[in-house]
Amino acid sequence: MKRSLIAGLASVSLSLSLAPVLPVLAVPSQSVTTENGQSTLRPIVNKVDVIAHRGASAYGPEHTFPAYKKAIQMKADYVELDLQMTKDGQLIAMHDESLARTTNAKELYPDRAPWSVKDFTLEEIQRLDAGSWFNKANPNLARKEYAGLKVPTLDEAIQFVKQNGNGKVGLYIETKAPNVYPGMEEKLIDTLKKYNLLNNGHIMLQSFSEESLRKLKTLAPNLPLVQLYSKDMLQGKDVYQEFKRISDYAAGVGPTQSLVVPKLIEAAHQNHLVVHPYTVNKQDDMVALLSLGVDGEFTNNPDQLVELLDKPFISHGVASGDVTDTSAVLWARASGPANVKFEISSDKNFKNKSIVKTGQADAEHDFTVNVNVAGLKADTTYYYRAQAVPGKYTVSGSFKTAPNKNSLKPLTMVWGGDTGGQGEIPPFKSFEAMASLNPDFFLFSGDTIYADNKTPAVPNPPSTTVQDFWAKYKENRTDAGLRTLLQKTGTFSIWDDHEVSNDFSGPSNPLTPTGLRAFENYWPISGERSSADKLYHKYSWGKTMDMMILNNRGYRDPNTKVDGPDKTMLGEEQLKWLEQQLLESDAQVKLVATSVPISIPTGSQNHRDGWANGNNVNPNDPTGYENEFRKISDFIVEKGIKNVYFVTTDVHFADIIQYDANHDGKADYHELVSGPLGAVKVKPGTLDPTFGPKRLYAEGDFFNFGVFRIDPKQNEATVEIRDESGKVHFSNTFQLERVNTNNNHQNQHDNNNQGQHGNNEQH
Predict the structure, then answer these.
(1) How confident is the model over 647-671, as pLDDT tens digits?
(2) DSSP 8-state class, residue 633
(3) Together in a domain, 155 and 95
(4) Which residue, 90, 114, 577, 757, could crosslink 86 as a Cys pair with Cβ 3.0–4.6 Å?
């Protein structure tokens, strides 16, 4: 898209999409935190709580004074206490119903298995050593003073936290196994009353038992209660209905961390429930949950969470993209204003001399940073790590540069699109399966978000502000599989309609500048592609492959315009560029990355969105862009350009199509279609016959992605369609035609049927 086009659009759309953010952008970045628009994926509290799980239990024996003191010193907001009740009715701080794991009860009372707390008096329990076990289990953290520590009573724990926390550290108390201890709730409330803690705002009560929580609600109506959830407790339940149901007694939910996905956050926050997942001990997991908008986290390592909340950090993973034989673009997002530092090395341990690049994360770009790295060696795996200074947390990634221009090296790429549409939102399984193949790069073929669909990021669609668009990208980046894939290999991302709105035409849609701004913020896109917002560009994998990335949205005439010689999707400049790249390419394979299909009718009657007019479906439909594609098709045939593969997604089913455009019995080019990765699944329809399509395979109603491999030695290209688990549903090997590198064009192969499938296998 030319800059002049954007300038013209901006004047139209300013009042709709850009004006609301101008006051934010005018404020110095040092004092700005970006608003997420209407997103539910953000905390509903002013401060995310750090909850020290059984104290700072990674550093000292759980539920002992040293662990509580360490948590207070580490600036935790709450110390968690688990309650058990003794035989004589005394409440003590202990997680297990048995004394066996964290005391020397087996040695001191060898004949009293299973050493249940309910079978021992407080006096008997106070004889136990509750610290030596930790020294044995953690010799690197062992301390002499831990030996002989006592199990604290609830009274003692409350007094200790009050005295050492100076009134700033709260108590987060769980009724453990209340069905085993009748009267536990009454004793707990009586103890809290004794210390005047019912109305001071520093107490939260939690339990897996709904009955216990409802009893506590009756006994102390003003205390906030948190319903804990294991995986089994939410199995098969609608979280929206479940959280609405419990909101009459609970102020929050405490799910195990694996349950926390966008739908759970939305369901909780819409019901005004805080979300406090347990037990989060790795910083990567802490960051992942913060990106989902949790309101607090239980952790054995409160210092690590405190550090993240006190300083900027890399919040949504890292990515590399638009990788060439000598350069790459690195991307990261910080949690706030920061100087983002990238270190790049060919040594994964960064012992060799590293390249250092920096970029400034500011509110104007939603704290995203893109940096260009040049001077790299061809055919080399590079490792990089990003850090939001002055924070210490780092995120690592890797990518492989393309081979040098004259080499023939094998290639494996994965491609897919359609993520976050029609109610299908993270987590997505396909990305993990893609990453497991260790591809040379990932082609994200459009609909990388669904800006116009309802999701937790935009519960009231469509997206109209840049904050809404940003929130959509952040929502998809909460997917662990996507982060893994982006961090493992280079990415080439292209946009399609849902990056703005369904079936949009760039020049006529007032939201185009806003959608394009967000797209360029959230993907590692080179200056060559983003220059003048053209987005189309060629990338080479030595002489194995030339990939021409198209911009099918930025230049198109409205879909409703009657097709004719003057109707365009690509624009005259881009069309001539594509023809030139195809003609000059001496690569074995010419891969054309297009976001819309050739002969699969898309859009609707009188509003066709792809090249096909679909007159076989609706005979009187005059729309589509067939006149323009005929120019491309005729050019390929007339110039004898072979081994051309159009790769796309968009239609929400998989389709492998061979074209005999001039109907002479020879394969002229192919179209490879995969998807969706995470959107509505549909069945294949009929093909528009204009360019002589022949289906080699079509399958719908499943999540899937594509794999494309090129073997230069065998002169073969193989396409696979795999489901979200990685299972191959279709595999087909094409014999490639030979390339005349001297004349920069292809000779006709002696076998007129070359290009048809040689090893077609469907599973």
Answers:
(1) 999 999 999 999 999 999 999 999 9
(2) H
(3) yes
(4) 90
